[in-house]
From TrEMBL:
Pfam families: LigT_PEase. This is Phosphoesterase HXTX domain-containing protein. It comes from Paenibacillus crassostreae. NCBIfam families: 2_5_ligase. Transmembrane segments: none annotated. Keywords: Hydrolase.
């Protein structure tokens, strides 16, 4: 993944029509959640250890706040006709996709992934995907999280 593409997916929306976009931006701008203190929390993978589909960085910190943001986004986007994914929300940052190598992926290599490196999330962002581009995500609009503490 290109470093500019690192993010936590709050909700995957899929194909979005121009008609949906105006309403979507309106409902997202009405979300009122607090800024979040988050931290990196190791790494893992989805798929087999021989050829992982996704290598990810774990996230810890204010997961209650992150789950609240997720719930608010789901509720807001539902008003625009978007459907909630069936899989459970699991906060992570995708680092790499579709391992291709001559040898089995070295699972031990991720045991030294950073833990405790923190940041303050003070906004969430609506992004568009451009497949096969690098970076592949384009920021459409950012929405500040409520700055009252």
């Amino acid at each position: 993944m290109h470093p500019q593409d690192y993010h936590i997916t709050i909700q995957f929306l899929g194909e979005t029509t121009p008609e949906q976009m105006g309403g979507l931006q309106t409902v997202l701008s009405s979300i009122n959640e607090q800024p979040l203190s988050l931290k990196l929390n190791g790494a893992g993978f989805f798929g087999s250890s021989k050829a992982p589909r996704i290598l990810w960085a774990g996230v810890s910190g204010n997961l209650t706040g992150l789950n609240n943001l997720h719930a608010s986004v789901i509720q807001a986007t539902h008003q625009c006709g978007f459907i909630v994914e069936e899989r459970r929300f699991a906060a992570h940052i995708t680092l790499a996709r579709n391992y291709v190598g001559e040898h089995e992926f070295n699972v031990e290599a991720i045991q030294s992934a950073p833990i405790g490196v923190g940041w303050k999330a003070d906004r969430f962002t609506l992004m568009s995907t451009h497949m096969n581009a690098s970076p592949m995500y384009e920021i459409i609009e950012s929405y500040p999280l409520n700055l009252r503490f």
